[in-house]
Amino acid sequence: MNAKNLSDRLKTVASYVEKNTILADIGSDHAYLPCYLVHQSTITKAIAGEVVKGPYESALKQVKNEGLENQIEVRFGDGLQVINEEDHVGTITIAGMGGPLIASILEAGKHKLTNVHTLILQPNIHAKAIREWAVKEGWKIEEETILEEHSKIYEVIVLKKGSMPLTEQELLVGPILMQVRTNIFKKKWSVEVKEWERIWTQLKTIPNSTEVEHKIMELENKMSIVKELL
């Protein structure tokens, strides 16, 4: 993968970036995504944010090698701290992290989202945490997709500002994804159910307690929610 040939995962994220928006890519790593979007003439300005020194330096080097220093500014900082109001950022991308971490980044930096209209998020696991944050903070799911690459399954969630009540089932599996129910969706949740059943079986063999009983009930609820979609 490089700035001109993204992985399918990042190409999917890129496909949701609106033309001429000002982008902030948080956790940008090598800054492949913003570089790709500039090369594609989708955007002309971006901020690549990194909190880890090595990836930050890799992003600086990549942007320089691509000759895009005038279009992409690489900034060192934690989460949304790298953006300011005067940047006029309209779109934020966060890809390749766990859902709870993405949600915590958005929560910590939510005061930075006043002028942001689109969040494009690609959690590696536990996308539910993002949907829960979105409902709480007044963002609605505009698009969702699920894809498989190198035997790993990823979800991409696009949020816009607006109210969006979700059921427990929709929070867990995604309101759009559960309507489409692709083969990859079914594969993901079939694997999850098997893992929950394995844990459930183990829990049934250990001495009962309030904690164990609570976990068993939680697993039974999740299995019930998902099985009716398979």
Automatic annotation (TrEMBL):
InterPro entries: SAM-dependent_MTases_sf (IPR029063), TrmK (IPR006901). This is tRNA (Adenine-N(1))-methyltransferase. It comes from Psychrobacillus faecigallinarum.
